[in-house]
């Protein structure tokens, strides 16, 4: 053994230790973020052990023979994280199998008494007909949304039973009966485990997901306004990538939530009424709230875009509107957090949700804007009466055009003709310089970003009404409890832990 090999051994051991330590940390983090994942893994393991007894115990194996493998496959495919997803796949698989077995047995009865050649032709024609019609049915939106997995299972089971019965000596009835029983056993075990052993409800996940989206939008607005009026000067470059900060992560979860909302709503529609009141779960209303929140989120995206503008308002100008803007954003954030809290507690919103303080914040902002009229008509121009505005505008426009013409002396006249003494690289540098000068030379150019920022804040107030209306409609449909002034409201805005939504994978059919 050489010295080099002795020196390599500690390195390999250290790498192995680091790998095992990293693996342990990742496993611990996944289980800590959502302990239901560990419970679900135990449920799947127990269910597989239970159906494996059909193979391991001799009396049971003699009764079911090789068909026991269908129960194992069913448990692997059907048992999902939530009860709604398991019911959706289990019932689809069960009904699809029963219908396919019944239809295959009917075709076998018709074809068996007419010779082997006719039987082969009839089986081929039936496979072509059923395959064509079944595939065409999958294009219907309602069937695609609710019963697509059942249609696939029906087509697969029909082909397996029909084709295998042509070569297998045992009767088709016995073959179809054995497979149907085993699939029924597997589906029944999955449904029982999902409904009665630490159940996870898709409706509950959809409810919590909606609450977290409202809270995320509130935090994004607060962070945007705080960052915009911070004392530190911002340094925004043209080629700067969008940072993965808290603002981006919060509204990104809202804008990308459509598929998650639709999937959870679909699975929630299959779940039984698990409350004592047995109210119908309003999954459609949750989908509507998701659409309104995405509409609200687009405004937050535009608000964050104000932090990355090329033309920046001086800090001295921003300080003039700092207090009213922060006050208005604080009221919007407060309303969203109270809305999320009432939704989490399943109670109606407070009648004073849009209080006088929000209206007063809007009035204060309007007063602050009116107190600085010169910012929006030109900082170097005195205030003029309306009859003089047209004359001043024409005069300033003439001065601006003359100034541009003096600068454009060395600019290219056309695209085809190049001026002497200038290279192609110099042309490309000259144009953006002129365009930026044309914008910044305007007297009110530095006030445009703050005006856009204020307009977006006011727009968010208008969109807040739409969110409140949909949440109130949800409270009426879901029969939420009435609001009581004595209830203690606790707003939890801690974002250190985030629970992910676990959605099933429909890629596998067997």
> Could you give the count of β-strands?
0
Mean pLDDT: 77
Shape: elongated
What is the CA-based Rg, rounded?
A: 34 Å
Contiguous uncertain segments of 5+ residues:
233-244, 379-393, 407-434, 488-497
Largest sheet: number of strands, sense, barrel closure: none
Q: Number of helical runs?
A: 19
Report the structural category. mainly alpha
Task: Summarize the structure in words.
The chain is an all-alpha fold and 510 residues long. The protein contains 19 helices and no strands. The protein has helices at residues 3-33, 36-56, 58-64, 68-78, 83-112, 116-137, 141-146, 148-167, 172-196, 202-228, 246-255, 258-268, 283-305, 315-320, 322-344, 356-370, 389-407, 424-440, 448-477. The protein is elongated and about 100 Å long. Its main location: membrane. Keywords: Ion channel, Ion transport, Membrane, Transmembrane, Transmembrane helix, Transport. Belongs to the aromatic acid exporter (TC 2.A.85) family.
List keywords for this structure.
membrane; 69% helix; 510 residues; transmembrane helix; mainly alpha; transmembrane; elongated
Summarize the structure.
The protein is mainly alpha-helical.
